[in-house]
Amino acid sequence: MSITGLFPIDKWDFQSESILADLPPADLEMLSTHKTEQVYKKGDIIFREGAYAAGIFFVVNGKVKKYKVNKEGKEQIIYVANTGELIGYHAILSDDRYPDFAAALEESTIAFIPREDFLKTLGQSSLLNNRLLKTLSHEFTVLINSLTMFAQKSVRERLAVQLIVLREKYKMNAKPGMPIEINMSRDDLASLVGTARENVVRMLTEFKEENILQTRGRKILILDINKLIRIADYK
Amino acid sequence: MSITGLFPIDKWDFQSESILADLPPADLEMLSTHKTEQVYKKGDIIFREGAYAAGIFFVVNGKVKKYKVNKEGKEQIIYVANTGELIGYHAILSDDRYPDFAAALEESTIAFIPREDFLKTLGQSSLLNNRLLKTLSHEFTVLINSLTMFAQKSVRERLAVQLIVLREKYKMNAKPGMPIEINMSRDDLASLVGTARENVVRMLTEFKEENILQTRGRKILILDINKLIRIADYK
DNA sequence: ATTTAAAATTGATAAATATCACTTTTTCAA
DNA sequence: TTGAAAAAGTGATATTTATCAATTTTAAAT
Known about the structure:
Radius of gyration of chain A: 18 Å
Strand order of the largest sheet of chain A: 1-8-3-6
Helix content of chain A: 40-55%
Low-confidence stretches of chain A: 1-13
Strand content of chain A: 15-25%
Oligomer: homodimer
Mean pLDDT of chain A: 91
Largest interface: A-B, 47 and 47 residues
Order of helices and strands of chain A: HEEEEEEHEEHHHEHHEEH
Structural class of chain A: alpha+beta
Number of strands of chain A: 11
């Protein structure tokens, strides 16, 4: 794998590095002091861009889209957070305003940790500090890959990349031994890829004709991941 | 200014938050223990993507492009670092491989700080720790704005944005009272905007016809920054 | 100042992507 | 189970962007 090649495959199936996993019980306890849990229905907004960042959120179960909205109301999905991931911490660490929107992609259980508890724990745990530095640096790497993808790859290639990434995320939803189905609206998929819904639909039809995937209602089942990888990887 | 509006102007003229400024003398001294300085000529490569991250770099004077290179050899500039900025620290904090290339855009003086000194100082300075957390979070915000720009804005709009940003960076080069000239090859400008050189040239011609800017050789002088802001801001 | 190689520019054309108007399918609540 | 409403899909066309093949201009070295 060429060092200069855009996106070696291991950079696609990025999962946010685990920030809280295996943190000492004392740290976790301090974080949890005022923790509350809430169930968000599909489409419910968790936080809004520009809102005061009252705290951070932990995805106990479900999937969350992080996105920006432009002047015309068009969404751009930046990232899909999965079960086990922490969101909203950038705001607390920089200017106390969320830099984007977050909304549930499916019914999700989300825990809320007030900013004070997060900051207090951060002040006492050098491990949490190091985890955050590492995660943020890793996110940077992932984001510049994404950026380059948007700047240089075609819609077809970007769709291939996102399908590969989404398949990884939906693995968790699939019962063991059962096929992995991606369940996402064409609008959200288009927003993730950065194109219009119609284009996504047309390319999915192409992929179907090439026996790369099949659909069941709005659900997508990848049949030939290697073909998809080749499309994503090459011009 | 709408909260949901893409890129309020203060997010464009982003300068990396100062990481080292006003750090206690003891910290700066520890960082400088094995510091070395080197002059890079225009085009010289400072580090390569994938290379072992032996340390971090401080731009004492000059301008540095950070970029990715795809399989076909096409460059994508991610960011232009200016005098006073630190680069290469993401690698040290995550996986010890530089995530992109860095090369001098003009003759530049660059200081090198070995990774051990950086890590040692980081271990002893909670201020440096906090600065890094804040900077990384801020970079995240800037990058998701960039990402959304690439995904949703036209070449014309992106060029307008980049000219505004570059003008800020070249302010430093201009003698007080003298006009601010952007001095960048059309290829680099195209790579920054994410398009072909020919398109950049054509759009610059348009901007000239609209009295937004003028050129002197390859140098660009912005005449009407407000028009540029309007183009960058609206569809 | 002159040469010359590199960079910039221009025009024509091809390819990719967006948009619009419409039909069909799916989902979900009554 | 069925009937809207929402979402998905399709085809035609417009617009944007990329590519190719030149020519002209600029900058650097002699």
